[in-house]
Amino acid sequence: MRKIVVFSNMYPSTQHPTYGLFVKNQVGLLQSAGLDVDVVAIQNPEKGKIQALKKYMTWFFRSVLYMMKNRKKLSLTHAHYAFPTGIISLIGKKMFGIPYVVTVHGGDIDKMAARNQRIADMTKNILRQAESVIVVGDKLREDVINNFDVPEANVHVMSMGVDTSIFNYVAKVEAREKLSLPIEEKILIFVGNVIQAKGLLELVEAFDSLKMSFPDSSLYVIGSQKDGQFVEELRSFIREKDVEDIHFKEPLGQADLALWMSAADALVLPSYHEGFGLVALEAMSAGTKVVATDVGGLSYLLKDQAGILVEPKNPDSLAKGLWSALDENSNVIDETVVQAKIAQHSYETILEDLLSIYRSAEKGQVDHSE
C-alpha cells in the first residue's frame, strides 16, 4: 500500500483540540502501523453561513488539488462522513481513478440526508460508488443497506475504537484523590456537547428525582457549551427546579477525561439519537457503569447487560436507571460481556479490520452503480 489521504470535515487543532479527535486518533493508529497517511480536513468548528461557505469551499479546492498532485501515489482515499466529505472522494474516483472508503458516523445519515431529496440522492450515490462503507454501529448498517440500497457485503460495522492504554481501570479512590473529589459522594458524569439532543433537560429532571434517594450525589456536565441559547435554557431550568450539585466543566483532554470516568460511579448518556456512543465505550474501558438511552448504536453497545438502557426522553426511566447504577446491591452489569465489548472495539482489533478493508479496496475499483 502506497499513500492514503483522509478527508474529514472535523479535525482537531491547537485552538480546538477535541474537534473530530476520533478521526485524528484513527489516523495516528494507521501511522503507527507504518502507513503513509496525509490529512486534508476542516479544523475550524465555527458556524455561520458565510464562514461555513468559505471554509468548505477552501477545503474542497485544497482536497481536489491534493488529489491532482498526488494521484499517482495514492492507493485510496478515506472520507469521514458520507456528505459532504464523500463528495470529494467520489470526485477523486471519477476524475483520477482513485478508489475510496467512506465512514458513516450517524449525523450524515440521520440528519444531513434527511434535509432534502437532493442530499439524500447524493448520499446514496456516494455510498454505492464506494469500494467499502464503514459504519460505526449496527443500526447504521441497517439504515445504509435498507435506505440507501448499498450491497450488504460492502458494509462493515467498525467503531472508531477505544484506546485502552488511556481509558483503563484506575481505582475510584485513587482517581478521586487525584482530582480532589469527595471519596464517599455519589458522582455522575455526562460527557458530550451541551445541546438539547443529548437529553440534558431530562437528565436534570431525573437527577432531581434521584437526589431524594441519594442526597449526597453530584452531577458533572463535561463538554462544549458553544450552543449558548440552549446552555442558558438549561441553566434556567436548573434554577427553576432548584437542583443543587450540578457542575459544568469545559471539554477535557483524553487522559484527564479517563481519570474523571474512573472517578465516577456512572456515566450517563441520555441522547435522543447516537450513531455509536464512543464515550460510553470509553467509560466501560475505564471500569465505569454506563446508563444510556436505548437508541441507535447505544442499543447494540449496551445490550446483554453491558450497560443500563433506559427509554429516551423519559426522566422517570432515566432516574430508575441511575438508581440501579448507584445501588450497591444491584447486579445489573455483566462484567464478562463488558470485557468482550472492549476487546471487540480495541485499537488492535480496529486496526486489523481497517487494514483488511483498505487492502480489499486497493485491489481495484468496483462499480456499484448498476
Provide an overview of this structure.
It comes from Sporosarcina psychrophila (Bacillus psychrophilus). Residues 30-165 form the Glycosyltransferase subfamily 4-like N-terminal domain. This is Glycosyltransferase involved in cell wall biosynthesis. This protein has 370 residues and is α/β, with parallel strands linked by helices. The protein folds into two domains: 3-161 and 346-362, 3-Layer(aba) Sandwich (Rossmann fold); 172-344, 3-Layer(aba) Sandwich (Rossmann fold). Helices cover 46% and strands 16% of the residues. The chain is built from 15 helices and twelve strands. It has helices at 21-32, 49-70, 85-96, 107-110, 117-129, 138-148, 172-179, 200-210, 228-241, 254-263, 278-285, 296-301, 315-326, 335-344, 347-362, and strands spanning 3-8, 36-41, 74-80, 100-104, 132-135, 155-157, 186-191, 217-222, 246-249, 266-269, 289-293, 308-310. The protein has a six-stranded parallel β-sheet with strand order 2-1-3-4-5-6, sandwiched between helices. It has a six-stranded parallel β-sheet with strand order 9-8-7-10-11-12, with helices on both faces. Helix 11 (278-285) links the parallel strand 10 (266-269) and strand 11 (289-293). Helix 8 (200-210) runs parallel beside helix 9 and helix 8 (200-210) crosses helix 13. The longest helix is centred in the N-terminal third of the chain and has 22 residues, at 49-70. Mean pLDDT is 94; it is low at 366-370.
